Amino acid sequence: MTVKISVLKERDEGGERRVALIPQVAEKLAPLGITFAMETGAGVASSYPDSAYKDVTFSPDRNALIADADIVLAVQPPTLETVKAMKPGAILIAFIYGRNNPDLVKALRDGKITCFAMELVPRISRAQAMDALSSQATLAGYYAVLMGAVHMPKILPMMTTAVGSLRAAQVLVMGLGVAGLQALATAKRLGAVTEGYDVRPETREEAQSLGAKFVDTGVDATGQGGYARELTDDEKQKVRKALSDHIARSDLIVTTAAVPGKRAPRLIDAEQIKAMKPGAVIIDLGAEGGGNCEGTQAGQTVQVGPTTIVGPINVPSMLAEQASELYSKNIMHLLQQIITRDKGLAPDFTDEVISGTALTHNGYITNDGIRTAVDPNSPAPPAPPPAPAASPSPTTPAANDAGKETAK
């Protein structure tokens, strides 16, 4: 059975340079019975010209590509017009951030579009190859340190010269998720003295494994889904007191705290910034969500007292070639779960990865949290039927034995 996939060209308004499909991934997916159509020039900004794609049809007519597509791929949330041009029952795969785009979520629901939102991929071991948030954050953490090095009035490593030695820079990374750990690793490779902080104590060993000192504040704010919970007022004061000295002596700080669809938590206040050394730099990767630092301005570089605060937006797009490669491979692994050569398009909504990534399906908003935020009166979807039990056979272990094997 043939499945037609159309790939959108990202609009220039947001400076997005990534593309959702690279040539190598298109070739790997073709044996599943997939035909590809792309908007003309979709990959050019990420160094993938149309000529690099084999057996892919190109067209400048977006609506024509969308109208008969079984699956539409994109990076950023598409426009309402794009969703309305899709046929009922079609699938959209992209970053959506439903809480920030309620009208888009409603349009997906009303159009009976099945949407797999890439920011919703469950953070479990089996879904790691589909985790687009992590793949893109890896690049953002790497690039944050390079941006910091460009803005600093000093170098990162220790250097010995004929007239004396230059001391290594002090780098503090706040928020030790994927981006933060990559920032620590990059700063260490470049010769800096590194420290890492997170409200989740279990990140201590990860920071130390990268050669960094862990800043222990005595607060445990481990939350659900791999994210930290919000701190109480007392906890905030305790954390602030423990961190202020580390902030004051840092040459470069990279802040990475972000929760998809919500405001970025405040990590550094104006008083702490004022106490920093002249020439210090903060790279605030939470800028798009309102900033981790007081004074951050999204998309701008500002001077606040002695400190330069850089608030970059869409950092992965700055590394568009490899960001597209990783994102496209994330999508490939998802598509391999919902498309088979024999059955064609057949997503299994009893699978926790498929159901967890789904935002809308068959006229319902399937994600409980986003449904409550976007339209509390919208009905919950009916529960999917249970998966059929496997038929016993002479070569199949007894039920109890099979259960034990699975548990292993």
TrEMBL record:
All copies of domain Alanine dehydrogenase/pyridine nucleotide transhydrogenase NAD(H)-binding, residue ranges: 149-311
Molecular function in Gene Ontology: NADP binding; proton-translocating NAD(P)+ transhydrogenase activity
Domain Alanine dehydrogenase/pyridine nucleotide transhydrogenase N-terminal: 6-140
Pro residues composition-biased segments: 378-395
Reactions accelerated catalytically: NAD(+) + NADPH + H(+)(in) = NADH + NADP(+) + H(+)(out)
This protein's UniProt keywords: NAD, NADP, Nucleotide-binding, Translocase
EC number in record: 7.1.1.1
Biological processes annotated in GO: NADPH regeneration
Annotated spans, Disordered: 369-408
An example Gene Ontology CC term for this record: plasma membrane
Superkingdom, taxonomy of origin: Bacteria
PANTHER family: NAD(P) TRANSHYDROGENASE, PROTON-TRANSLOCATING NAD(P)(+) TRANSHYDROGENASE
The protein's name: proton-translocating NAD(P)(+) transhydrogenase
